[in-house]
Design goal:
The chain is an all-alpha fold. It is built from two helices and no strands. α1 runs antiparallel to α2. The longest helix has 22 residues.
Length: 50
Amino acid sequence: MPEEIKNEMIYLASVDLLRRMLRSGDFDKNVLDRLNRKNAETMKCRVVDL
């Protein structure tokens, strides 16, 4: 499997986790958005909105 596809799958799994954290209401949306952007940058993926 190409590295690009693996990175995208990992990033999308992290987006799902961040969305669950946002839904729980225990975390600030700004912090989760910033973490999401940083994850996308690190994994070299296009940012998906939470």
